[in-house]
Amino acid sequence: MTLLAYPKQVVLGDITVRDGFQHEERFIPTDAKLWVAEQLVLAGFKRIEATNFGNPRIMPQFKDADELLKRLRSSKKVGHLLEDVEITAITIRERAVVRTIQACKEGYGPDRILFMVSTSESHHKTNSGLTLDAYWKMCEEYIPMAHEAGMKVCGTVSTIWGCPIEGPTELKRAVEFTKRWLDIGADDIEHADHDGSAPPDKVYEYFSMVLNDIPDPTKHIAHFHVTRGWGLANVLAALQAGITHFESTLGGTGGQPANFMDGVPVTGTGEYYYQDPGIVGLVSTEDMVVMMDEMGIDTGVDVDRVLQIGRMLEKIIGRRLRSECVHTGRIPKELTGRG
After folding, report:
1. pLDDT tens digits, residue range 272-315?
2. Tens digit of pLDDT for each residue in 212-258?
């Protein structure tokens, strides 16, 4: 019998406060965002995605980007722990990068920023407003500026396994984009299944291709959505391929940026890709952490505390979210005497 092979230690990034909240059609109070970020730090997460420095008229969920980072940096609860935590902000366009550079000069900026490209031209234009050629040129100009300000840069590659606008895409194109990001100075790469198009066999195939060409696992982060329910299956496939860095959101929240906020239509990234806006979302942090813990994989986080945060997040958002383990709990390790 051949046993499944997978890493015994992983690095998890929780991106609830940014990606998880971006799909919400109600503004999440800054106090609540701060509480979630602080609790994630206290639970042991060393990578947290906190906000988006893009135009707040387009995505008003992040109109508090500066305030949130200032309060997180000065937090009495976790400020002393942040030296070991990497805080990321999204900066899709030039003005957002300029804002983060200014925030760094004022002492509260992120440690890492994130640019995004899609292998699908139409998806990329929808997200960024630029053609791919123009976007690559922009990144070549702004990545050195970010580094000079003391920030790392993550380059995202999306629509790897398919595009909600154009349909099928080619895996080899995403591998080429990964190499291009690293060639122009990106520090690591987020490999994103942004709409839940990735089947597990193609996830294994793709990451095997990537690690064959760029074998350093610290350069690669897997980012899966659960639109079709395949999220944890894809996590397992990525583990088997040798991936050690993952992203997720509490409660499986997140997805395409909201185009409606507090009763008012906003731009977001246009019409939702799916008729039911509630089906999108990322892999649940709670479920992934519990699964990995059961597999004997060291996640570096406090599993019970993660479940506690997940339960509170349901109160913050005001509905039942997509985590199963928040409600079922961990698998008992000893008899409880019940039943």
Report:
1. 878 777 888 999 999 999 999 999 999 999 999 999 999 999 99
2. 999 999 999 999 999 999 999 999 999 999 999 999 999 999 988 99
* Per-residue pLDDT at 114 exceeds 60: yes
Look at residues 218, 258, 274, 265 and name the one whose alpha carbon lies nearest to residue 242: 218
Per the CB < 8 A criterion, the answer to whether 237 and 201 are in contact is: yes
Asked whether the CA dihedral 319, 226, 248, 258 is positive or negative, the reply is negative
β-sheet bridge partners, residue 192? 223
Long-range contact set of residues 105-108: C-beta below 8 Å, sequence gap at least 24: 105/149, 107/73, 108/66, 108/69, 108/70, 108/73, 108/74
* DSSP 8-class letter at 187: S
What domains lie within the chain, and their CATH numbers?
Answer: 11-322 (3.20.20.70)
Question: Residue 338: what pLDDT?
Answer: 53
Q: Which contacts qualify for 99-108: CB closer than 8 Å, 24 or more apart?
A: 99/53, 99/65, 99/66, 100/53, 100/146, 100/149, 100/151, 101/145, 101/146, 101/149, 101/151, 103/53, 103/66, 103/69, 104/149, 104/150, 104/151, 105/149, 107/73, 108/66, 108/69, 108/70, 108/73, 108/74
Question: 246, 221 in Cβ contact below 8 A?
Answer: yes
Q: 205 is written with which tokens?
A: 């195939």
Give, as one character, the DSSP assignment of residue 103: H
Angstrom CA distances, 36 to 48, 192, 316, stand at 10, 23, 10
Token pair 């994103």 is found at 192
Tell me the residue type at 28: I
- Strand 264-265, strand 260-261: pairing: antiparallel
pLDDT at 126: 85
Which burial class, exposed, middle or buried, applies to 274 when counting CB atoms under 10 A from its CB (0-12, 13-18, 19+)?
Answer: middle
Using the 8-state DSSP alphabet, how is residue 287 labeled?
A: H
Mean pLDDT of 195-203: 94
DSSP reduced 3-state for 284: strand
